[in-house]
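User: quick one - fold this with magnesium ion bound?
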Amino acid sequence: MSNLNKKLGILGGGQLGKMLCQAASIWSIKTLVMDKSDYPASDIASEYFVGDINSEADVLNFGRKVDVLTIEIEHVNLAALFQLELEGVEIHPKPSALKLIKDKGFQKQFYKKNNIETAPFELFESKEAISQAIHYGVLNFPFVQKTRSGGYDGKGVSVIKSEADLSLIMDAPSVIEQLANIEMEIAVIAARNKSGEIKCFDTVGMEFHGDANLVEELICPANISLKIDEKAKQIAAEIIEKMDICGLLAVEFFYNKDGSLWVNEVAPRPHNSGHHTIENAYTSQYQQHIRGVMDFPLGDTTTRCPAMLLNLLGSEGYSGDAIYQGFEEVVAIKGVFPHLYGKKETKPFRKMGHITIIGEQMADIQQKAALVKKKLKVVA
Ligand SMILES: Nc1ncnc2c1ncn2[C@@H]1O[C@H](COP(=O)(O)OP(=O)(O)OP(=O)(O)O)[C@@H](O)[C@H]1O
Ligand SMILES: [Mg+2]
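Assistant: Sure. Structure tokens for the protein plus magnesium ion:
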């Protein structure tokens, strides 16, 4: 069977699933998606199945309908994936790699074992064990607690600076790591296919929104030296190879004030830090993921022009049917590309879409970004 005729299954129908379907449709590849009803991918997938991506039975049923199975989110039922793999379904990322990545404890042990620089850490079983370690002076402030599983978008991460923050400690098996002295957070998206070909997109620089811990602004290429850019790409390539992943692997780094580069975490799927590739690279991350998981030659990752990516979050103080105030004004601006995820209801800080802004110079992009931020608001 030609790879073009294979049915691509995607677990998760959020915005990343939606954009994967859009990319697949360029080559008329059939996409089957499963998630809750009315999710962003529901009106664009070739076939949409309402089901629970955490249910073993639902994932099994769904997986048996497809030739190649992939994910847009890590929180999926693993037992079903291992079973489907035994039954011969081609799954990328492999369930074994996903198992490692889903648990931040396993991930950190992987970096340590492979001599990949990451924040120094220790594993703890419970809040009680953490409190004991503080009490006996084996654990000192400040530190960062991360629950081993279940976290996303900064939920499941607590920065504990002093005794005053003790109430923020979560009661769950956790990674406790050193607080990094960060100059800039950067990310590289790597891709690999079955033939072993590996390509990386240019490094991006990220900025976070203080209140919600969501990346708010991202620029490509990042404002870093060529040396750091190359080092980050080389580490991303090493991880995707060693984890034996096909498709995308987004690697988040802390570039520290002392010049060190620590891997923070990875995600084996399209990533928020790669949306801009739709407009600014020869190949989008979504196209690249499809190439990687369906074993086509990888696309060229060269950046065509600088870009800035803004998250379009629900405005504070508004909940209900979303209204995109200022939309017509911003779409009239050259190089401004809003993407709306089609979520009916807005809530404060909910990811409702993103805006990619391209231009010839970063200064010109920044000017347009200031205008977009002022004009475009999600209200109700
Ligand atoms: N060791 C650390 N030192 C300093 N800041 C940290 C550290 N670990 C995490 N952070 C901050 O918290 C943010 C979220 O952490 P992390 O990426 O591990 O969690 P997540 O919830 O999985 O993230 P995502 O937003 O990518 O889903 C980081 O981007 C960084 O800003
Ligand atoms: Mg992160």
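One thing worth noting: Residues 248 and 269 are 5 Å apart (CA to CA).
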